[in-house]
Write a structure and sequence with these properties.
about 325 residues, alpha/beta, six-stranded mixed sheet, four-stranded mixed sheet, about 45% helix
Length: about 325
């Protein structure tokens, strides 16, 4: 049996728009892994065939389906389509600019075998720069090797989206049952999705780093945050949508920290463009949280793990 035969146990969804710079790295990283039973779905809406033509060169190396979908311009719509078309019961998605790291395939198969019932499984990710050089590790504030209760994960996840999109594994039926990605959220759609999936039951957190999450100047995080008001509204919308999932006794303290986290994210985005007033105001709000609130923010926001790699990426790009 080769990789083209037999049932798929994992579907990898890759949404793409003008992904010709990155697609070869993404597909090569999958092809280097044991990939029997792994299918790749590339959903491309680019104006030319460049990405699709490169991907077609892999049809004799991996099981891949290529979709030309100019009618699905957003990554959210392409991802929802890809999950709906997936042949496997378990799915992950991979940004066209991200990569699998050695051991990904075998690790994921073990995770699924150990916890086939779980709607969502989480793992850390490595930050990489435009040339694939390591910049740091992005971890979740969870106990590795254990299942986190739904309530605990929601509490911590509401403070900050600490999940790198290419790292998790999720069940296709759970994705469909919760409505998939909200296509009206251009920045926080994945955060909203993780919160929906987290509400379905315990979530294992694995300690293996098996994906590279690429930081580069053309990423959505960088380009989208240029509109400060809309950037903040994206985060406010998700917080308001999921606050009711918190236990009444826990809600006031967590909501306060979560709102400070949103202010910090907005302030950091403004500071990256040379405007520091919002960041100074956010730092004042952070100080007003007191020791317990500051500790909760520090633990759940992963602020150092998120910011330092971006600073390193800026230095390597300028070198």
């Amino acid at each position: 049996m080769n990789s083209q035969d037999g049932p798929a146990w994992l579907s990898v969804v890759i949404p793409s728009f003008r992904g010709e710079r990155w697609i070869d790295s993404a597909l090569t990283s999958i092809a280097r892994e044991p990939h029997e039973g792994v299918e790749v779905l590339l959903i491309d809406s680019g104006p030319s065939r460049a990405t699709r033509d490169q991907a077609a060169c892999y049809t004799d190396k991996i099981r891949i389906r290529i979709f030309d979908r100019a009618d699905l311009p957003s990554w959210q719509a392409k991802t929802n389509f890809g999950v709906a078309m997936a042949a496997a019961a378990h799915v992950c998605w991979l940004g066209v600019d991200d990569v699998w790291l050695p051991g990904r395939s075998e690790s994921v198969r073990t995770w699924i075998t150990d916890s086939p019932h779980c709607a969502l499984q989480l793992a850390p990710a490595a930050f990489i720069d435009g040339d694939g050089r390591p910049l740091g590790i992005w971890r979740c504030p969870l106990a590795p090797g254990r299942e986190s209760a739904s309530a605990l994960l929601v509490e911590r996840l509401l403070v900050q989206n600490f999940i790198a999109a290419p790292a998790p594994i999720f069940r296709k039926d759970a994705w469909l049952a919760c409505g998939g990605i909200d296509e009206n959220l251009w920045y926080t759609a994945d955060w909203d999705l993780w919160l929906k999936l987290a509400s379905l039951g315990p979530v294992p957190y694995r300690d293996a780093v098996t994906v590279g999450f690429r930081l580069h100047p053309d990423s959505l995080t960088v380009t989208g945050s240029l509109d400060a008001a809309d950037f903040r509204q994206q985060m406010d919308t998700v917080l308001a949508r999921h606050l009711s999932r918190l236990a009444p006794a826990a809600r006031p303290a967590i909501e306060r920290v979560a709102r400070v986290s949103i202010a910090m994210n907005s302030g950091l985005a403004s500071a990256s463009r040379g405007r520091y007033r919002a960041l100074l105001a956010a730092l004042f709000e952070l100080a007003c949280l007191g020791p317990v609130g500051i500790w909760r923010y520090w633990r759940d926001s992963r602020i150092v793990e998120r910011v330092l790699p971006r600073l390193r990426a800026g230095r390597t790009a300028a070198a």
